[in-house]
Amino acid sequence: MLRILTLVALLASSAVTHAADSELPYKEFLKRNAVGVSQLAVGMTKEQVAAIMKTYTTSVHDAVLTNPHKTEVIQRGSDRYEVLYYITRRHPPFTPITDSQTVPVVLKNNAVVGWGKTALQDLRRQ
């Protein structure tokens, strides 16, 4: 019985530690996102992007921010585009986050085709 209780306690503390690991201070959240974006490569799947970018969260005065910050889906014929926005730049407190504070990662049919403003502009011009 004692072994079972010990095991349950260990599992519970592990779950709490894991949840706490995903909550980062705001500056660390921005830094890790910037580093993660630098590790992306064309052709990666959405799952590979998620493994690099993680599901970090951070709390600011007026909100909880998550990874990705937002997503957008665009259907063009048989091609499905998904844009994942990751916050990499600070924003003033109590103001909405704008796209200029994020790095968009553009996927076509579940594969990265580019990231950044140029990749997003190319998608919008199609």
Task: Chart the SSEs and their pairings.
Layout: H1 2-22, H2 26-38, H3 46-53, E1 57-60, E2 63-66, E3 70-76, E4 79-87, E5 102-108, E6 111-115, H4 117-125
Antiparallel strand pairs: 1-2, 3-4, 4-5, 5-6
- Oligomeric status of the shown chains? single chain
State Rg: 18 Å
- Percent of residues in beta strands? 25-35%
Please tell me the total number of domains: 1
Strand order of the largest sheet: 3-4-5-6
Total count of helical runs of at least 4 residues = 4
Given helix and strand content, the structural type is: alpha+beta
* CATH C-level name: Alpha Beta
The major β-sheet equals: 4 strands, antiparallel
CATH topology: Beta-lactamase Inhibitory Protein, Chain:B, domain 1
Approximate shape: globular
- Low-confidence segments, given as residue ranges, are 4-20
Alpha-carbon distance between the two ends: 64 Å
Helicity level = 40-55%
Number of beta strands: 6
Please trace the helix and strand order, writing H or E for each element: HHHEEEEEEH
Average pLDDT metric: 86
Just name the CATH architecture: 2-Layer Sandwich
Overview features:
126 residues; alpha+beta; Beta-lactamase Inhibitory Protein, Chain:B, domain 1; 4-stranded antiparallel β-sheet; two-stranded antiparallel ribbon; 4 helices; 6 strands
Fold and architecture overview:
The chain has 126 residues and is an alpha+beta fold. It has one domain: Beta-lactamase Inhibitory Protein, Chain:B, domain 1 (2-Layer Sandwich). The protein contains four helices and six strands; from the N terminus they run H-H-H-E-E-E-E-E-E-H. It has helices at residues 2-22, 26-38, 46-53, 117-125, and strands at residues 57-60, 63-66, 70-76, 79-87, 102-108, 111-115. The strands form two sheets. A four-stranded antiparallel beta sheet has the order 3-4-5-6, sandwiched between helices. The model is unreliable at 4-20 (pLDDT under 50).
